[in-house]
User: Which sequence fits this backbone?
């Protein structure tokens, strides 16, 4: 009788798990160096005071950056600007893209044309989009001319880039223009994945198109809707280049001084790295919290 | 679940993509349905029209001298084909004809980033879905959480990391911070969730290595989604202004957005050159987009597949 | 053996000479006139100093500040650079730039250096007793007038030009052409967004201050500030609609004489640019220059502040590079006359200002008389923040039609917070 020594053998499952780690390793390494390390750095820096140009090491000041920010009118104003922009953009974005997707999907022809046409602004670099829109929204530009035409007036300057309300609307408009196509395509894909059998069953039971939509399609579309609204919210909170390029071109800063622009300004213009880091960490926490909230809410409702 | 149940039922205004199989509707449409249909067309046409106006404006205005662009009222028909704008756009404000170089730089950087992102994201996605290991859930969440990190948060520490490596003002410096994206990992993972396990198991039984399986079985079947990711990543990087703004110091290394921005400086209001540059800067992406659109739209289905 | 040694030695010497060369990197902003001048000067300097190589890099002016910042933040700044003093001051305070080596620069001593320039022109770069930069350009702004626009509006530019702010509003209104609300020709436009340049002197003329003498109080002198804020409110679209920051910058339009701008603010360098952009647009018949207006009830005669671009040397460059850098800069300063004639920038040396060239230059007397009435621009580490606060205040009254009293309170609080070091 031969007794086999119980040499530990690597099981198939273990070997596969090891391969799993190998496959994931490049990604993990990358994120460790280029995402987590800088964030860790930013967190640490947020408790210090450091001028970008200073050769001295950062000075530990505890919570002072955070208390300074929370007591600053400018800080709250930037959150107001971001909040207004996010709500003002994400909500229309979700609703309009859902509407357009529904319409496109019910066409028998030109579906691809519509999708591509709507998506094409996304293909234009952000800098280019801002440049073109700045011309359109110039007092002498087409935006004024067309709105006046539609409203039957002449010579009225709607102050697209001058009055605070209008400049907010302008940034929302530019952003919607750029992102609508993307989310429409996502919704179309979502709509396409709804099985027809369910729809047919409801139709046979005598449901109208509207009832069908309201009680069958929309609920089944929920995962897509949640995905879209979370993505839209995150993207809107991270908006930067539209506001940056507009203010560079002379638009008033205060109404559109979103948080990301504030971070950039604090670091690059005011040279205050510690403060900018604190602002970034606050932004990160808020975005995280919002995503979690949206996710939870979407799970609860039947 | 979703796709396999498409029976292509006839009748009614059933919502489905693609042509209706099997011909005409069985019931005539009511006037309400016809009205709704017409309204739908109207809305779509208006939406598309509005969306396309800035693009059309951009292309038309690039053929007009600056005076005419800002003229009130704007005339959509250019008086003549004014080509000087393009000349100025290519020549650049400094007269160095760096436009082709800027295009090359952007293509190189965006292309490299697209390739590496697709490669590593697919690898990671496969590892997370098909090679079960403890902690894969946590790893995925960790990676996903980086999506919420605004670039401005990490911008300066990242800059310090990159300069410590000596990579500022160089191609690696432009490429390396963007080798991967969390969105890419998310996308590939989602689409790989519904990849049939049988195929993989069959190859394993045949004795293929994991790497072999990956490159010979998985990748060829995931090409549409990979194309989507490639296009999106390329686009995103083509568009990137803020990182090159920090890292690029020599004019020869400028990417497209930096080149465009140089036409927007405060001292010149050369609207003609600005739109010409804008138009030229948009063309490469539009061409790529149009040629890959077939893949793109098909691959977009990944967003609906396999929700957890 | 000897015959092989000689070429080897020659080769070694050449190779060694290359080793001994010092490379100096010089960053500056784009200016086509200055580029051609400096490239020539570099060639001459390198010929006279074979051990030095100068590499010149240009960048657009509005990106230069950020590029400089990120380069220095990574400890890889250029050896020589220039920016305007508001951007350069933090570099002095943080000890990133080296004091002027007066000897290498050819001045002999620090006293000679100070004497060579107009009094007070080096003040912004003097810190704790050391001088940290040499002027490339010292500028103050006055008002440029397009005489053709005046004539087109039925006014005589030589007699009808405004000398007070009250007159300015009237004259600008007469020169403005509108299509409904939309302005197609502006009478006068302020030089947005450089609020520290044009708002502060308007306030100071009335006895107000941006920052009080105690260094703690902000927006001192309520009546002065309220008068200025009300003026801008009336200037804007809700008042007499004479212009706004969102219209194209006047300075980009003026040279082309396209009947779209009547008057604007700029410096002497603009004259050279007009010569390049539009040679037919001549001083004395096409355009002219007038002093900065004063209020009717002004208590102090103050013109727009002067600011400067200074050549500075990176403190982290090694000793050989710093020495080479100062020698190069010194060489550049010896050509102040060419800088003035060909580029239109004033290095404000005593010699240049006394010269015939300068005195024959169009309207240099107006610039000089305004310069005599000018304070130095507000420069401090928080200067950009102050400018932003002024911008917010002016935009609030001009574009949003808010009450000057409320706006003043917000402005004051912002300034005082900044002075305390709070966000």
Assistant:
């Amino acid at each position: 009788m031969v007794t086999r020594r119980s040499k530990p053998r690597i099981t198939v499952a273990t070997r596969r798990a090891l391969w799993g780690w190998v496959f994931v390793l490049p990604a993990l390494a990358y994120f460790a160096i280029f995402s987590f390390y800088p964030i860790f750095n930013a967190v640490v820096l947020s408790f210090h005071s450091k001028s970008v140009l200073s050769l001295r090491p950062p000075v530990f000041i505890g919570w002072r950056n955070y208390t300074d920010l929370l007591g600053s009118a400018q800080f709250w104003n930037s959150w107001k600007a971001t909040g207004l922009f996010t709500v003002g953009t994400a909500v229309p974005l979700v609703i309009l893209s859902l509407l357009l997707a529904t319409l496109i999907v019910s066409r028998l022809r030109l579906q691809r044309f519509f999708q591509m046409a709507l998506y094409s602004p996304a293909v234009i670099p952000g800098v280019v989009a801002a440049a073109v829109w700045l011309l359109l929204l110039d007092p002498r530009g087409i935006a004024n001319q067309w709105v006046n035409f539609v409203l039957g007036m002449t010579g009225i300057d709607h102050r697209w880039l001058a009055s605070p309300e209008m400049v907010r609307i302008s940034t929302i408009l530019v952003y919607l223009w750029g992102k609508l196509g993307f989310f429409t395509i996502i919704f179309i894909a979502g709509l396409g994945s709804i099985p027809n059998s369910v729809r047919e069953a409801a139709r046979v039971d005598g449901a109208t198109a509207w009832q069908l939509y309201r009680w069958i399609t929309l609920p089944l579309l929920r995962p897509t809707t949640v995905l879209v609204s979370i993505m839209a919210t995150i993207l809107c909170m991270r908006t930067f280049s539209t506001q940056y390029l507009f203010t560079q071109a002379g638009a008033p800063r205060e109404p559109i001084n979103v948080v990301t622009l504030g971070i950039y300004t604090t670091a690059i213009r005011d040279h205050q790295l510690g403060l900018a880091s604190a602002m970034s960490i606050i932004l990160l926490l808020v975005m995280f919290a919002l995503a979690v909230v949206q996710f939870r809410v979407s799970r609860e409702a039947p | 679940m979703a796709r396999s149940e498409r029976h292509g039922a006839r009748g009614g205004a059933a919502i489905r993509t693609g042509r209706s199989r099997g011909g005409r509707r069985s019931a005539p449409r009511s006037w309400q349905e016809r009205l709704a249909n017409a309204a739908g067309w109207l809305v779509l046409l208006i939406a598309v029209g509005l969306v396309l106006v800035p693009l059309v404006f951009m292309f038309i205005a690039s053929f007009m001298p600056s005076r005419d662009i800002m003229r009130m009222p704007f005339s959509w028909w250019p008086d003549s084909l004014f080509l000087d704008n393009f000349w100025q756009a290519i020549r650049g404000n400094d007269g160095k004809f760096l436009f082709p170089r800027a295009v090359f730089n952007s293509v190189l950087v965006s292309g490299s980033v697209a390739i590496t992102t697709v490669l590593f994201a697919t690898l990671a996605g496969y590892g997370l879905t098909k090679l079960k290991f403890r902690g894969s859930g946590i790893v995925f969440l960790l990676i996903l959480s980086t999506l919420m990190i605004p670039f401005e948060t990490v911008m300066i520490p990242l800059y310090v990391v990159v300069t410590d490596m000596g990579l500022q003002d160089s191609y690696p410096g432009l490429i390396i911070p963007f080798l991967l994206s969390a969105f890419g990992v998310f996308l590939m993972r989602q689409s790989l969730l519904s990849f049939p396990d049988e195929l993989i198991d069959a190859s394993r039984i045949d004795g293929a290595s994991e790497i072999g399986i990956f490159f010979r079985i998985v990748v060829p079947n995931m090409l549409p989604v990979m194309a989507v990711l490639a296009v999106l990543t390329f686009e995103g990087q083509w568009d990137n202004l803020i990182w090159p703004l920090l890292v690029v110091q020599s004019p020869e290394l400028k990417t497209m957005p930096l080149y465009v921005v140089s036409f927007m400086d405060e001292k010149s209001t050369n609207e003609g050159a600005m739109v010409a540059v804008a138009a030229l800067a948009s063309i490469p992406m539009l061409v790529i987009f149009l040629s890959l659109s077939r893949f793109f739209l098909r691959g977009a289905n990944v967003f609906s597949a396999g929700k957890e | 053996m000897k015959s092989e040694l000689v070429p080897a030695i020659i080769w070694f010497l050449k190779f060694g000479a290359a080793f001994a060369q010092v490379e100096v990197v010089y960053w500056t902003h784009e200016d086509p006139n200055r580029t051609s001048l400096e490239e020539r000067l570099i060639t001459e300097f390198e010929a006279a100093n074979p051990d030095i190589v100068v590499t010149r890099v240009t960048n657009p002016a509005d990106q230069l500040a950020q590029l400089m910042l990120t380069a220095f933040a990574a400890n890889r700044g250029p050896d020589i650079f220039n920016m305007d003093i508001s951007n350069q001051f933090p570099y002095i305070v943080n000890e990133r730039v080296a004091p002027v080596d007066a000897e290498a620069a050819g001045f002999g001593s620090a006293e000679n250096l100070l004497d060579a320039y107009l009094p007070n022109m080096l003040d912004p770069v003097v810190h704790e007793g050391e001088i940290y930069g040499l002027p490339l350009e010292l500028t103050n702004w006055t008002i440029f007038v397009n005489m053709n626009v005046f004539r087109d509006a039925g006014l005589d530019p030589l007699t009808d030009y405004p000398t007070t702010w009250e007159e300015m509003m009237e004259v600008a209104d007469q020169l403005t052409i509108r299509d409904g609300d939309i302005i197609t020709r502006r009478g006068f436009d302020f030089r947005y967004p450089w609020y520290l340049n044009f708002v502060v002197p308007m306030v100071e003329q009335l006895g107000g201050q941006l920052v009080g003498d105690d260094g703690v109080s902000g927006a001192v002198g309520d009546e002065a500030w309220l008068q200025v804020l009300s003026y801008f409110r009336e200037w804007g679209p809700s008042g007499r609609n004479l212009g706004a920051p969102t219209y194209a910058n006047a300075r980009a339009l003026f040279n082309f004489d396209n009947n779209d701008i009547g008057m604007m603010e700029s410096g002497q360098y603009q004259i050279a640019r007009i010569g390049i952009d539009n040679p037919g647009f001549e001083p004395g018949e096409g355009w002219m220059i007038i002093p900065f207006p004063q209020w009717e009830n002004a208590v102090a005669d103050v013109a727009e502040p002067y600011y400067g671009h200074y050549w500075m040397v990176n403190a982290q460059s090694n000793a050989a590079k710093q020495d080479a850098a100062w020698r190069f800069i010194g060489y550049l300063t010896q050509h102040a006359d060419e800088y003035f004639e060909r580029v239109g920038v004033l290095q404000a040396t005593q010699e240049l200002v006394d010269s015939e060239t300068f005195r024959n230059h169009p309207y240099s007397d107006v610039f000089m008389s305004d310069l005599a009435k000018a304070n130095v621009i507000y420069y401090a580490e928080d200067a950009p923040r102050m400018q932003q606060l002024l911008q917010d205040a002016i935009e609030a009254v001009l574009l949003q039609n808010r009450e000057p009293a409320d706006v003043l309170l917000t402005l004051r609080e912002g300034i005082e917070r900044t002075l305390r070091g709070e966000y």
Notes: Chain B has a mean pLDDT of 78. The first helix of chain B runs from residue 31 to 61.
